Amino acid sequence: MDLTKLFKNDLIYFIHHQLPSGFKNAGKKLVSIPCSESQFHAIFANHIHFYSKKSGVYKCWFRGKEGEEKLNQIFGSTDWGIKYYNQNQRTFIVLTDNNVSHQKTETNPLALATAKKANSIIKPKKSLNKYKYGEMLVEWKCRRDKDAMGNICSAGFIYIHFYTKQAYIV
């Protein structure tokens, strides 16, 4: 079997592992997976939007319907970003709000009340996000550690940043 296909399956597995089963756990997520630079290039070579010579960081952004179609093509599946649960529930990665437009959805009233309570008590700090709601950022970076003896250990990692949302299909 092709190693690139195996690694794509690993990526899908780790993404699904981060898709929460509860309304309260939806939102910003991060998946970090060890990956060589050549593996990253084998999968995302035609989709790299940014490279820094100084830091060696690669970045790919996927937004909207076009981004969703590119990721479907990369992973070879349309369900790569959806996790199904019992009782007609599913959690999915948000790239567009059209994911459930053809089906009736409702939100959990308890989750809404909890969110309102949290927003009224604690005012969130304004931060500059690397990515926005409705987009997925895939980064490759080399992480280096140096021990007390001066030995250096380095490895490449893929970091996948995304937002999740949950729907109850009636």
From TrEMBL:
<protein>
    <submittedName>
        <fullName>Uncharacterized protein</fullName>
    </submittedName>
</protein>
